[in-house]
Fold:
Amino acid sequence: MNIVIVGLSHKTAPVEIREIVAFPETAMEVPLRQMLKLPAVTEAVIVSTCNRVELYAISRQPDAAVVEMKQFIADFHDLKLEALQDHFYAFEGTDAIQHVLRVASSLDSMMVGEPQILGQIKTAYGYACEYKTVGLILNRFLHKAFSVAKRVRTETAIASNAVSVSFAAVELARKIFDSLDNKTVMLIGAGEMCELAAKHFVNHGVSKVLVTNRTFSRAEKLAEEFNGTAVNFDNFQEQLHRVDIVLSSTGAPDYVLDAKKLKQVCKERRYKPTFLIDIAVPRDIDPAANKLDSVYLYDVDDLQGVVQANVKERQKESAKAELIIAEEVNQFQSWLATLEVKPTIVALRQQLEEVRLAEVDKTLSSLSGLNDKERKAIESMTSAIVNKILHQPTNVLKQANNNGDGNLYIDAVRTLFDLPDPVDQKPDKSNNRSDI
Amino acid sequence: MGTMSLLFSITTLIYLVASILYLVAMVGKQQQASRVGRWTLLAGVVLHATCFGLRHSTVGGTPVTSLQESLAFFAWCLVLLFLLLDLRFRQSVMGAFAAPLAFLLMVASALSPDVVVQLNPVLRSWLFPVHITFAFLGNAAFALSFGSGVMYLIQNRMLKSKRFTGIYQLLPSLDVLDKVNYTCLSIGFPLMTLGIISGAFWANTAWGTYWQWDPKEVWALLTWFLYAALLHGRLTIGWRGRKAAIFSIIAFMFLLFTFFGVNLLLGGYHTFEAFAIL
Structure:
């Protein structure tokens, strides 16, 4: 049994391609059912997001499955296969397991560490469950992927640093003020980025929002949005001593806040820290203000710098994540290997043979005065019992395997008889079609 | 003697383990490790107290007369104060400062000559343990205040220069560091004050005079004035942040000189050997 993946992502295909091969989330039933009908495919999941389209399948003939799945994507969207061929990637076996675990853990994302993809895979899996296109293996595999993603998230700092400018501002504020509860934010001007940052601040506990704008009505409108207060632009500086965080983005050609004024404000605030974020270009706040002891001034470039540093930090953390994934790939692979018929039957036989030998030994040692012939008779009788017992289950296992639902039986046998995992077996080897 | 030095070694080892735990907690951001570190330190502080108890009964007096004993007692005070502070702030970074410092003090103590100083009968008074306990607890509080001050300056520098290295991630916010700095100051100052006052009373019972302008007394008073000025600045003028951090670092330098420098360079009756001579 093999996990097979065919797909394309932001790494292999431009958006023009990705958008035409996307599967609409509202109508997943048809493609899922069609995919399951492909001759080489026994289980199916379709993940479709704006950055990737991937089909997950279980197959006995991985090579055939890859061809069929590629053709299926093209056919479903009425496209020529040649147009897509260069953008496709395909994985099977260990590579496929690793790929999905990496994707779920957001290591393959456009922005490494951003968590949306996990939710999207969960949704895709939800549809596959709803339309019953997943079986034992993909069920187990996707749950594995979810738990690995969680592990990566908790054991590495891959998602702990902000990678957007507005979030970076919030993070910096928390390094200055610790908690943002009961802090006051002032918005100067009404740029979109400021508004977004202000929203983040409010979400993180900021309780008071003051808004000022050259056009007072716009200030009033924005203030309403945040349940805040509009301040007249002519005298907004008089309110500054009440403000902990300033978000500035006016279109003014000159500074709207100079260092001298800020120095005075610092004194009025009894040197409580003030965090100034100047997103405007040209800048609104005199850069010299950063030299004041209790003032922390960040302009757009500074914030970009923070973001870039955080991105680097995430990349460093992703090395740790890769180790976790390598470990989990092995673990899953060894479970998958247990699902092969041949080793299962061998293990089952071995188990019963051990029981037989032990019992024969016990019996023979307590019976003295048996001749060789009698001993042989006991041996062959017990062997015959074991063979008879095993005959039917072995046949059922083989048949079930040929009919395509062998995994269920194999898993059941392994559980019922508590058979050990074939750890000494090379996973790659057992991936070959088993025709016992 | 055997059990005592064994207990002492175990305590030192426990402080080392706690140091490692706190460092792991800080660098690896593992809350679990700092929780274990906290309990480890608590065990260490209890064991260390047992050491003092034993030493007290062997020596027949308060066992803080030699340099060796003083260093160990300082370590104990430091850990005790950190644990109290930890109840409020829960900053594993402070633990990563306090625990290794306590460990180093213990090592320094172990390396110092082991002399049992017989206290002059004149000096045997209940005021002696009171005096040193206040003084050392005060010192420990100021040491923590110093640590948070240094961390504040580093973090402040990171935020100002906008260059964020790993330390930026590890250190807590400016607000927390400033609060720790202030809390330590407001604990340390009254302790130091009580230490000086009880010392004066003790001096009076021993020598019949409250104050002799002994070098240690002079430097202690100077240090006290510095901390008083810092506390005043914080409470009334609104000093905080960088200025207060720098001030607490400078004041601690004076404190260190009072503690070590005076004994080594200036002499006077506070020197450890002097107890025997007197």
